[in-house]
Amino acid sequence: VQLVESGGGSVEAGGSLTLSCTASGYSGTAYCMGWFRQTPGKEREGVASIIFGSGQTFYADSVKGRFTVSQDSAKNTLYLQMNSLKPEDTAMYYCALDRLCVELLRGRAEYWGQGTQVTVS
Fold first, then answer.
1. Which of 1, 51, 95, 106 could make an S-S bridge to 21, C-beta 3.0–4.6 Å?
2. 17-24 sheet: strands from edge to edge
3. pLDDT at position 37
4. Are the beta carbons of 116 and 62 closer than 8 angstroms?
5. Residue 73: which pLDDT band, with cuts at 50, 70 and 90?
6. HSE, side-chain direction, 13 A CA sphere, residue 23
7. What is the β-pairing status of strands 77-82 and 91-98?
């Protein structure tokens, strides 16, 4: 299974970015995907996740109302629309996938992408 993220970059506070993550090599029909972020010296934190199929979403309190996670099942792609970005959103953002949502939500997903950097100044 390969997860490839894209869309990171540098933006001014208040701006927007959209991250994408395309999964390949996964044959399951029901699974969860999510976005996590990490800054140096800090633990990785969950940002937003979605159950592919039902579309049920989960958000960290820090991003509710600003970030939107969505899916394109036909393309096996996960998106994260980030609006009203703040300097504290600066981090490496990782995409993750797991067959079990409970594992992904605990940060113990089986598959991880390489990450894409988001910098807000």
1. 95
2. 2-6, 17-24, 77-82, 67-72
3. 97
4. no
5. confident
6. 28
7. unpaired
DSSP string across 20-60: EEEEES---SSEEEEEEEE-TTS--EEEEEEEETT--EEE-
| Alpha carbon distance 73, 40 (integer Å) | 33
| Nearest by Cα to 99 from 33, 34, 31 | 31
- Kindly report, residue by residue over 29-65, the tens digit of the pLDDT: 778 999 999 999 999 999 999 998 788 999 999 999 9
Q: How far is CA 5 from CA 30, 102, 118, in A?
A: 20, 22, 12
Q: CB burial class (10 A; 0-12, 13-18, 19+) of residue 55? A: exposed
- The predicted pLDDT at position 115 comes to 96
Q: How far apart are CA 43 and CA 23, in angstroms?
A: 24
Take residue 40 and report the two structure tokens written for it: 């140096």
Q: Which residue type is seen at 60?
A: A
| 1's tokens | 């299974």
